[in-house]
Specification:
The complex is a heterodimer. Chain A is mainly α. Chain A has one domain. The mean pLDDT of chain A is 87. Chain B is mainly alpha-helical. Chain B has one domain. Classes of the chains: A mainly alpha, B mainly alpha. Chains A and B meet through helix 2 and helix 3 of A and helix 3, helix 4, helix 8 and helix 9 of B.
C-alpha cells in the first residue's frame, strides 16, 4: 500500500490503512529521538562537535527517505 | 486466527530474546520463514518493525538510568545508519537464497558468541564503569574512526537481515574502543532503533513491509520484551541459553540448506 493510499484510507478508518500509518509513526520515533538529541547538543549543552555529529546522522536518516530500494 | 498466532510468535520471540540478551529478530525471522512460510524478505521487514518497537521502549529506560553514552552512540551512528541504508538497498537486489546463507552464518556466529560468553549475563560483566557524561568520548575511548567504520558493518547486517546488530557493535566498543561492557550494551540498545529506522524507512516506502503481519508481530515482540526483561531479573538463564544454542544450530543448518536450494 502506497503512502497516499494509506492516508486516504486512514481518513475513512480503513483498518489496513490505519495499520500502515501506525507503522510509519513508529518508524519515525527514532528520527524524533535524534532530532531531540540534536537540539539538546545545540541549545542546552552548546556542544558544537556533537551538534554536527547528530546533524550528520539526521542527514543520513533524511537520505533514507528519498533513496529508493526495490520491491522484492 | 493467523493474526493471533503471529502475535503469539512475536510474544515468544520478544520474551526469549530479552531473556537471552538478544533482539527478537534472531528468533522471529526463522519462525516466520519456516513455520509461516513467509518470504525471507517479508520476514526481515517485519522484524525491523519489531526491533524499533522494542528499542523505543528499552532506550528510554537505559538512557534515563544514565548507562548509555549518547555522544558515543551518536558518533557510531554515523557508521551504522550509512550501513543500514546500504543494507536495505542491497537487500532489494539479492536473492532469498543469499539471505538464507547470510542469516545462517550470522546464527552460527551468534551461537559461538553465546558459547564463549558461557552462562554469564552481559550485565554481570567483569568490568563496570561509570559514565563520565560530559567530558566527551575522545578522552576516554580509543580507535574512534575504526569503531565508526566497523559499526557500518553492524548497520549493513541490520538492513539486510533485520536484526539489531548488537552482535557486532558490543564487541567493537568493548574490545576495540575500550568501552566498559555495561555502557557498551546500553549504548548499543540506544542505537538499535535509530539504525533500524534508517533501513526500515526504505523498506516501508518501497511497500516491502506487510502491515497485516508486521503489526501483530511487533506488538507481540514489544510485550514479550518487557516481560522477558522483567523475568531476566528473577530467574537463572543458564539452562535456557544451552537449549537455545542447540536450537540455533538446528535452525542455522536448516537455513543453510534452504540457501543451497535443496
Amino acid at each position: 500500500m502506497g503512502l497516499r493510499q494509506a492516508l486516504a484510507g486512514a481518513v475513512g478508518l480503513e483498518p489496513v490503512a490505519l495499520m500502515t500509518l501506525g507503522i510509519l509513526v513508529l518508524l519515525l520515533t527514532p528520527f524524533l529521538r535524534v532530532v531531540a538529541v540534536f537540539f539538546s547538543f545545540m541549545l542546552i549543552e552548546k556542544d558544537f562537535r556533537y551538534t554536527l555529529v547528530s546533524m550528520g546522522v539526521l542527514m543520513v536518516l533524511a537520505a533514507s527517505l528519498v533513496i529508493p530500494g526495490i520491491k522484492h | 486466527m493467523t493474526t493471533l498466532f503471529l502475535f503469539i510468535t512475536g510474544l515468544l520471540a520478544g520474551s526469549f530474546g530479552a531473556l537471552l540478551g538478544l533482539g527478537g529478530g534472531v528468533i522471529v525471522i526463522p519462525v516466520l520463514t519456516m513455520l509461516f512460510d513467509l518470504p525471507i524478505h517479508t520476514a526481515v521487514g517485519v522484524s525491523l518493525v519489531g526491533v524499533i518497537a522494542t528499542s523505543t521502549g528499552a532506550a528510554i529506560i537505559y538512557v534515563r538510568e544514565g548507562k548509555a553514552d549518547i555522544r558515543l552512540g551518536m558518533t557510531l551512528e554515523l557508521g551504522t545508519t550509512v550501513g543500514a541504508v546500504a543494507g536495505a538497498v542491497i537487500a532489494g537486489y539479492v536473492s532469498p537464497k543469499v539471505l538464507y546463507l547470510l542469516f545462517a552464518a550470522m546464527l552460527f556466529y551468534n551461537t559461538y558468541a553465546m558459547y564463549r560468553r558461557g552462562g554469564e549475563d552481559e550485565r554481570a560483566g567483569p568490568e563496570n564503569g561509570e559514565n563520565k557524561g560530559r567530558t566527551g568520548i575522545r578522552d576516554q575511548y580509543r580507535n574512534i574512526p575504526q569503531g565508526v567504520l566497523l559499526s557500518s558493518l553492524a548497520g549493513i547486517m541490520s538492513g539486510l537481515l533485520g536484526v539489531g546488530g548488537g552482535l557486532i557493535k558490543i564487541p567493537v566498543m568493548y574490545f576495540l574502543m575500550g568501552v566498559p561492557l555495561k555502557i557498551a550494551a546500553a549504548t548499543s540498545n540506544f542505537m538499535i532503533g535509530v539504525t533500524a529506522s534508517a533501513s526500515a524507512l526504505i523498506y516501508f516506502l518501497d511497500g516491502r513491509i506487510e502491515p497485516l503481519v508486521a503489526v501483530p508481530v511487533a506488538l507481540g515482540i514489544f510485550g514479550g520484551a518487557i516481560f522477558g526483561t522483567w523475568m531476566n531479573d528473577r530467574i537463572s538463564t543458564g539452562m535456557l541459553r544451552k537449549v537455545f544454542m542447540v536450537v540455533f544450530i538446528y535452525i542455522a543448518l536448516q537455513m543453510f540448506s534452504k540457501g543451497l536450494g535443496s
